[in-house]
Amino acid sequence: SAPVELDRDVVVIGAGISGLVTARRLVEAGHTVAVLEARDRVGGRTWSQEIDGSFFEIGGQWVSSDQDALKALLAELGKETFPRYRDGNSVYVARDGDRREFRGAFPVASSTLEEIDRLVAALDALAAEMDVDAPWAHPRAGELDSIQFSSWLASLSDDEEARRIVDHYIAAGMLTKRSHTFSVLQAMLMVASAETFENLIDEGILLDARVVGGMQSVSEQIAAELGDAVFLGAPVRRLSWGPSSVVALADGVTVRARFAVVAVPPPLYSRISYEPALPRLRQIAHQHQSMGLVIKAQAAYDRPFWRSAGLSGTGFASHEVVCEVYDNTSPHEERGMLVGFVVSERAEEMWALPAEDRKRAILESFAAYFGPEALAPAAFLLADWGSEEWTRGAYASSYELGGLSRWGHVQNEPVGPIYFASSDIQGAGYMHVDGGVRIGDATATRIAERLTADA
Ligand code: FDA
Fold it and tell me: Which PANTHER family match (predicted)?
């Protein structure tokens, strides 16, 4: 069919939460939009599917109890949430294989707990000095951005287990990169994005609740309300721009607009050809943000068998294939579900195995926490974001060592009529759906001000 040609105030590229919230707010302010999405679905890194009789959330799913922007959006859309199951004991498997059940503090030596507190206090103190919207403006930004997070921990403590636990929370738990590849400044941003280390790592806060119907349904509802402004299967190939207009050329659709919002993760910016090319500093800066890698592994069982054993389904073991695990049962299902994470090199090792060996290795790891019943799930899914052309990793992107202080200052600035919006370049809520909501709100406000000034 003939390509569609449209004139709109704003063209939004990408129908993840960041792009959709931007579009929603612009429409509310009386402006016209078109949203161009590469995939045949909306939601980006949030996605759910029914597979082998179980409901799986493949991407982002949890709502932290302090994520106010996301919570306000959920209320606005009339979406309900349900709490994560967390009654009973958690499991910690130590490096020597010793399996310990616990509640509250980690079952490690009290001296190690004290070391953990000391390291966390040091990180919290640094994060408290940071303007979360401008990490590069910290007076010691350059210096802190030149120190590997792993070296910094080693310089502060001789307690190997304490270091490993703190390292794990930021590296494996959040950035999904090894801690020698990112800086103290990047770790500080991660902490400051949730205000405190506690908010970031306490699973009672961070993994508080899920959305009834799945997190993707938030994007689906916004897209449904935007109606025929959303185009699926429309990857934007070229973005021509001048001082006060853009033309976005997607497969099957061309949109002429006053402004563009590139609402894709930074590592994908260069999938679009800009005409003229973006300024040199951007072209350089955009090469220094990269995606982490994690496999979200989920196994559904006829019943949540761990609960009758007095277990919450929560477990940690930084040396295991699956380094953290949680109960991920949906309240509308009889089956119980476990979700676990396999991070960075471990994820690469797993993808290198034949599928059956990979499944066995991951289920054996679940069994290390919860016993042999974990070996025989009724449904099983590994989320493979690394091979998704329009994402290319998980959970999100971060700067390489030294990048945040050097190039971060350009990431939120428009280039002429082109704005950038993603959870990966947002301060509060960085790398989370909440961050996508926040940057969507903020980007729409910035553009609406300029549209009003034009009029
Ligand atoms: P996102 O990547 O979602 O959207 C970008 C969109 O642009 C995509 O739809 C893509 O297809 C499209 N696109 C790309 N290039 C294009 C082009 N050239 N033309 C047109 N369209 C293009 N967060 C959280 O709060 N709680 C959680 O529990 C988790 N857990 C989690 C698990 C896993 C496995 C992942 C992968 C991620 C999470 N996250 C999370 C992170 C969270 O999902 C993420 O931060 C946001 O969904 C990102 O939303 P954005 O809209 O910024 O990008």
Answer: AMINE OXIDASE (PTHR43563), AMINE OXIDASE [FLAVIN-CONTAINING] B (PTHR43563:SF1)
Amino acid at 425: I
What CA–CA distances, in Å, run from 40 to 14, 43, 316, 390, 402?
A: 11, 10, 36, 11, 37
406 and 328 in contact (C-beta within 8 Å)? no
Task: Report the nearest atom of ligand 1 relative to the CA of 62.
Answer: 28
* pLDDT tens digit sequence for 412-451: 999 999 999 999 999 999 999 999 999 999 999 999 999 9
Task: Give the amino acid at 446.
Answer: R
Please give the number of the atom of ligand 1 that sits closest to the Cα of 391: 2
Chain centroid, CA 148 distance in Å: 22
- Contact by Cβ (8 Å): 451, 31: yes
Distance 43 CA to ligand 1 centre (A): 7
Write the ipTM. 1.00
Contacts of 440 (CB under 8 A, 6+ apart): 17, 18, 19, 20, 21, 22, 24, 25, 263, 421
Chain center to CA of 390:
14
